[in-house]
Design brief:
The complex is a heterotrimer of chains A (about 400), B (about 300) and C (about 280). Chain A is α/β, with parallel strands linked by helices and about 400 residues long. Chain A contains 15 helices and 12 strands. Helices cover about 40% and strands about 15% of the residues of chain A. In chain A, strands 1, 2, 3, 4, 6, 7, 8, 9 and 12 form a 9-stranded mixed beta sheet that branches. A 3-stranded mixed beta sheet of chain A has the order 5-10-11. In chain A, helix 4 links the parallel strand 1 and strand 2. The N and C termini of chain A lie far apart (about 65 Å). Chain B has a single domain, classed as MetI-like fold (Orthogonal Bundle), CATH 1.10.3720. Classes of the chains: A alpha/beta (about 400), B mainly alpha (about 300), C mainly alpha (about 280). At the B-C interface, helix 1, helix 3, helix 4, helix 5 and helix 6 of B face helix 1, helix 2, helix 3, helix 4 and helix 5 of C.
């Protein structure tokens, strides 16, 4: 072994010394090199397995062990896998919940963020067991499946307006109302130091620069756009027309050359970060994680509010929901956006979980019932940043749904 | 007229090769079936306008179709300019370990997941292009309609074409390199034997490899038509149809990537998306058939 | 005395070097970016990166990407043999019978398959395989990958086979070797370097493909699974999901996964290149 290595090293030395161009891989050395590589690979793999055997490692740890003594239910449900698909919005929260639920009960939850529409489509084709969709089932769909589907708005998340004005200091708070935002996105307000904006922000009016506003919007179809445009329609006194509400619209500001479309929340975030004097709307978690400056928006009462745990809880306190998960939720957006309340934040949106009432597989039905109950009892204690804790009537809906599911 | 043995050989090869045909027919059938709905309802209106308004039920994908073709043309030009010199350098000028390392690096990049190209392009390439290429071109050549709009963020058909072009360089290089390395020594010796300079002999040898170059470029064009993640992130995603390269635009694959997620919620949206795929496929099938028959005729004229 | 030819020669060399530097610069830059971001993750996570499960947004540890690695390996193991077999048969057909309309058709079909948007491939496989099977699976993912990779495999193999000079074929046929014999004993061994490169590039493409798996593979990240008929995850899918999220720990995992892919390619490439000899004509 050593002589061979010595040979190789000697060859290198001699050839370098005599300035010979040589190919390291001539026939004689090649099989040797291969043999060495194979031996090294075998050695590493066996060393690894030996170490793993003798030194126990917690592979599934993730910052705190949650071992529990299995009860009879958990032994039965040990290998059940629940498939879900739907909106990207819920994915981080479900990832967190799935891990905790799995270490508690052994049931695995697999979720794919393919979009609300694709999720609903997969659910109705029975490719997945449950769907998570930002918009609830439309009235036509609900009528079609009346009595056999359950939906609950189990999570809420705010949409925030972010901006990038280099001249403003970090602790300044830009205040805007729906009229201003609507006019910006229609192209009517062109500069940051427009009179209307200055009137809303008396304290920093002097700092606002005379620069064109670049309005960033979502280029892809998104529930975030729907929430944003519904808010503008409800709160701007007619400036933002009903035709401009939806998941994917043609933005008036696009034609003026000052509009930019970003793909996904991350696209809008990146555009706002990279383009000075821009304004955009994103989900709260993206604004937090990327340290973006958030606009304080005027709510129905007249106060300028920033999104925070308190303001969101206050908004949800007055939520009117149907009393049973079997009912039609298609009008929910109306009751959750631009709500009355001193401290309520005006742009808040629900995301729903959609399930069948009957499942062929009794184990899956069991697992789903357990999951819904667990979310109410423990899941809501582990809310990821960017989501708001739902109020009491949502928890009741979840418990009711859990009782409705049968096999 | 093939002998019996030849015929047997041919027939033995046929089943597995025609699997390609089956796959294509199956794909076209699925796509056509799913797009029947929207074609019946909207007809050729889809090809004339460019709007995307699912709430009102108005669709038109002229802008994405043109955008797809434009970005692919740009990508092929970029790939041509970048991979031909790369191939020549690797094949003619480099030796030994450096040659191995460089060609391995190029081949390695062929396997990079396209999402990484997309992230890298959107964070590094597009700002670079905007600062050093798009804005100077816009300032100097404003009168040419191709450069007449101001790039705000840099995401545009131009940026997308260049990014996709960079991502197909490894494939094109590998194919041309392969073809070049199998030109028999006789030609090389003949060239240098009559005293040609390096440039002239490279020209001659490249002309021998021309069928492979064209094949590689057609493959690159097809790939750029189908490139999804890079296009979705760099093209700007706007239905705005203009002759300016620096304006944001759309490609068919970016349209699908952006709109498919929620398309099921609207009655015809999914079907319209399938219809746009159908049109792109028809364009590329026509192009591929034309290109392939040209190459075959070419090849038969070059005797090696 | 400078003649026009000499100047042209120098100009040519200069342009070529400039353009190739321009071509290599993005590649080098990308490798640097990936390595820097990935090394940070590797150092933090250690070897459990290859054996652990992905982290949740609230957790502090990096965890690992074991389910994705196994998923990618599984789907590559299913898809690569199928792709290579189909492609090589088609390439042999196209080389042996170049004027036949069927081979022209196959050539064109291969290029057309490449132009289907990869996300459309996953939509098609979803409709044809996933819905009837009522679930996602590694098989569906492997099928989508095969469809995507076929055109490239075919082009590489046919270029490699075509570059074998006709002299060798004629020599083999003149000693009364059967047609299959010429292919197996003469053509393929001479073209073996090209074929090996073709296999490598196809494998790299299969391992790195993202959009074709979006609606087919299932993104099952909670457990390592090797059943082909059940959902499975893949490394590019993991990168796709995590890098587009706002959570920093997921970004780190995504970069680590990319660096892992790069290292895997390097290892496999060098291994194969060492073994396959180049044939000088």
């Amino acid at each position: 072994m050593y002589t061979i290595i010595g040979n190789i090293i000697g060859k290198i030395y001699i050839d370098v010394a005599t300035f010979n161009k040589f190919s390291m891989v001539n026939y004689m050395n090649r099989s040797v090199v291969i043999a060495i590589l194979v031996l090294v690979a075998i050695a590493t793999i066996s060393a690894y397995y030996i170490l793993r055997y003798y030194i126990p490692q917690a592979h599934r740890s993730y910052g705190g062990s949650l071992t529990s003594t299995p009860t009879t239910t958990t032994i039965q449900l040990q290998d059940v896998v629940l498939q879900g698909a739907g909106a990207t919005f819920v994915y981080p929260q479900i990832a967190e919940w799935a891990r905790r639920f799995q270490s508690r009960y052994g049931v695995q939850i697999d979720y794919q963020s393919v979009g609300s529409g694709a999720g609903q489509s997969m659910f109705f084709q029975k490719v997945v067991d449950f769907a998570c969709s930002d918009p609830p089932l439309s009235r036509e769909n609900w009528l079609k499946y009346n009595g056999s589907v359950i939906q609950i708005p189990w999570l809420f998340g705010p949409v925030v307006i972010v901006y990038n004005i280099p001249e403003l200091p970090r602790n300044a708070v830009l205040k805007l109302d729906a009229v201003a935002i609507a006019r910006i996105y229609k192209g009517e307000i062109v500069y940051w130091d427009d009179e209307y904006i200055k009137n809303l922000n008396q304290d920093i009016a002097g700092l606002l620069p005379h620069r064109e506003i670049v309005a960033v919007y979502r280029s892809d179809s998104s529930g975030t756009t729907e929430l944003f445009t519904t808010f503008l329609y409800k709160a701007s006194n007619g400036i933002w027309a009903k035709e401009l509400v939806g998941k994917s619209i043609s933005w008036p500001v696009e034609g003026s050359g000052r509009g930019v479309g970003g793909k996904g929340n991350e696209g809008v975030t990146q555009n706002v970060i990279q383009t000075p004097y821009s304004i955009g709307y994103v989900e709260w978690s993206y604004a937090i994680k990327n340290n973006l400056s958030i606009v304080a928006i005027r709510n129905a009462v007249g106060n300028f509010v920033l999104p925070s745990k308190e303001t969101l809880e206050e908004t949800l306190k007055n939520l009117k929901l149907p009393s049973s998960p079997l009912e039609d939720f298609s009008k929910i957006l109306d009751s959750v956006i631009y709500t009355p309340g001193d401290k309520s934040y005006p742009i808040l949106g629900p995301t729903h979980i959609i399930l069948w009432r009957r499942y062929d597989d009794p184990k899956k039905a069991e697992a789903l019932k357990l999951f819904l109950k667990w979310v109410v009892e423990e899941g809501y204690n582990y809310i990821v940043e960017g989501y708001a804790t739902p109020p009491q009537n949502v928890r009741e809906l979840l418990i009711k749904a859990s009782e409705l599911i049968a096999s | 007229m093939m002998t019996r043995k030849d015929k047997l050989f041919f027939i033995s090869l046929l089943p597995l090769s025609s699997s390609l045909l089956t796959i294509l027919v199956l794909s076209i059938a699925t796509v056509a079936l799913k797009s029947l709905d929207s074609l019946q309802t909207f007809g050729l209106n889809l090809l004339i306008s460019s709007t995307w308004n699912p709430e009102r039920g108005v669709y038109g994908f002229l802008a994405p179709l043109i955008g797809s073709v434009t970005t692919s043309i740009l990508a092929v030009i970029t790939a041509l300019f970048l991979s031909l010199p790369l191939t020549i350098i690797i094949a003619e000028y480099l030796r030994g370990i450096v040659k191995n390392v460089v060609s391995s690096i190029v081949e390695l990049m062929g396997g990079m997941p396209t999402i990484i190209y997309a992230v890298w392009a959107s964070q590094y390439l597009v700002p670079f292009l905007k600062e050093f290429i798009m804005e100077p071109l816009h300032n100097v050549f404003k009168f040419i309609p191709l450069f007449s709009c101001r790039p705000i963020t840099g995401f545009s058909i131009f940026a997308s074409g260049i990014s996709i072009g960079i991502s197909i360089v490894p494939y094109v290089t590998a194919i041309i390199l392969e073809a070049h390395q199998s030109i028999p020594l006789a030609y090389r010796e003949a060239c240098y034997g009559i005293g040609a300079t390096r440039y002239e002999s490279i020209k001659i040898m490249l002309s021998l490899a021309r069928p492979a170059i064209v094949a590689a470029l057609i493959l690159g064009f097809a790939r750029s038509l189908g490139e999804t993640t890079i296009a979705a992130v760099t093209v700007g995603n706007s239905m705005y149809l203009s002759s300016c390269l620096f304006a944001p635009g759309y490609t068919v694959s970016a349209l699908i990537a952006s709109q498919f997620a929620n398309a099921h919620l609207y009655p015809y949206a999914e079907s319209v998306l399938y219809a746009s795929i159908l049109f792109v496929m028809m364009i590329s099938i026509a192009l591929s058939f034309y290109g392939s028959s040209t190459i075959i005729r070419w090849r038969s004229r070059i005797v090696v | 005395m400078y003649s026009w030819r000499k100047i042209r020669e120098k100009l040519f060399t200069f342009t070529i070097i400039l353009l190739s530097l321009l071509a290599i610069a993005p590649i080098i830059h990308m490798i640097i970016v990936v390595s820097i971001n990935g090394i940070v993750t590797f150092v933090k996570a250690g070897t459990s990166f290859f054996t652990g499960l992905p982290p949740t947004p609230l957790s502090q540890e990096i965890g690992g990407i074991a389910p994705s690695i196994i998923g990618t390996l599984l789907m590559t193991a299913i898809s690569l043999p199928i792709t290579i077999t189909l492609a090589i048969f088609a390439a042999i057909l196209a080389t042996e019978f170049p004027k036949n309309p069927i081979s022209v058709a196959i050539d064109a079909i291969a290029k057309s398959l490449a132009s289907i948007p990869t996300i459309a491939v996953s939509m098609i496989v979803y409709t044809v395989v996933v819905v009837p099977m009522k679930g996602f699976s590694a098989l569906a993912g492997a099928l989508a990958l095969t469809i995507v990779a076929l055109p490239y495999a075919y082009t590489y193999f046919s270029t490699a086979l075509r570059s074998v000079p006709a002299v060798y074929r004629e020599a083999a046929l003149s000693v009364a070797m059967s047609r299959w014999g010429t292919v197996i004993r003469v053509l393929i061994p001479i073209a073996r370097n090209g074929i090996a490169i073709g296999v490598l590039m196809t494998m790299a493409r299969i391992m790195g493909e993202t959009a074709a798996l979006l609606f087919t593979a299932g993104r099952f990240r909670n457990r390592v699974s090797i059943t082909p008929s059940k959902p499975v995850d893949a490394v590019p899918l993991l990168i796709f999901d995590y890098i587009l999220s706002p959570y920093d720990i997921w970004h780190q995992v995504a970069w680590g996964a990319t660096a892992f892919l790069l290292l895997a390619y390097i290892a496999i490439f060098f291994a194969v290149k060492l073994i396959v000899k180049e044939v000088k004509l």
